Amino acid sequence: xxxxxxxxxxxxxxxxxxxxxxxxxxxxxxxxxxxxxxxxxxxxxxxxxxxxxxxxxxxxxxxxxxxxxxxxxxxxxxxxxxxxxxxxxxxxxxxxxxxxxxxxxxxxxxxxxxxxxxxxxxxxxxxxxxxxxxxxxxxxxxxxxxxxxxxxxxxxxxxxxxxxxxxxxxxxxxxxxxxxxxxxxxxxxxxxxxxxxxxxxxxxxxxxxxxxxxxxxxxxxxxxxxxxxxxxxxxxxxxxxxxxxxxxxxxxxxxxxxxxxxxxxxxxxxxxxxxxxxxxxxxxxxxxxxxxxxxxxxxxxxxxxxxxxxxxxxxxxxxxxxxxxxxxxxxxxxxxxxxxxxxxxxxxxxxxxxxxxxxxxxxxxxx
Length: 367
Description:
Blueprint: E1 9-13, H1 18-28, E2 32-37, H2 57-62, E3 67-70, H3 76-87, E4 91-94, H4 100-103, H5 108-113, E5 119-124, H6 139-146, H7 165-188, E6 192-197, H8 198-206, H9 208-216, E7 233-238, E8 241-246, H10 250-260, H11 265-268, H12 275-280, H13 282-293, H14 298-307, E9 312-313, H15 323-328, H16 350-357
Parallel strand pairs: 1-2, 1-4, 2-3, 4-5, 5-6
Antiparallel strand pairs: 7-8, 8-9
């Protein structure tokens, strides 16, 4: 079966999460991705842990379908190999330290001067040219600088998200931008230079919270499981557990209180008639909902809410071990990720092997 990016070659000097996620998405769409790794241990994500057959879980998640080659890009010979790979590529992605690509002769301007169809992606933590350009950009730090941590958690305790949100946001925007650049190249014949920072991507993902701050002057509060703008929207007790319930519109509220909870008077109660009023009277709204849900078992309430197609979940804290079961009912899950999925390429430590063996790699590079 053909894939949308069949025939596209991507060369990536990348490590950790953001850039590898971007190129993994391109590989999933059919691109041939040649991952350039360090000779002294490769991508640092390989060693985050050893839970997947001795390899880091992050690395396996982020690098399926790719080929890998280890090159000392700081050496003259190694850098020349990268240049030859890039000369044959459609896309070049790098998340080196700020300014490093230019010092190595791998900056966008230099690469595209002789290869104008090339799409070059520079992924950084805080962007180029600003006062934070040289700062370390670990996911937690970027979440903090973007303000994400300030609105995540409970009123008492701010927390970072449980996944590397800043990395993921940047990686997704990179992949999206590459697709747009390739479409434009198909139309015009011209490549592009793309700059994405983790900070800017994360700020964009804050979304409505940022607009709330800008237009009200008030910091959106940390709400735990609740929602700043919607009610009811929380975990509510049952006789044997709890149920997550989210009501996003007024008709859903009327259906919930009349057809399930059995308190039709609440449908016309002016405190709860509209979402704005329910948010204004959140504590009272949560109390009246909880007073009714506690009368049901979780299974009974689940069935009743299913009947009216109201948003809910029986798992207030769904465990990851249950994930495969939940997916199995919707679509077939994929197999475990592997490098060189298409059977091409092999690991080669260039700095030591170059002089003795030449720069062999099946992308067509040779001395």
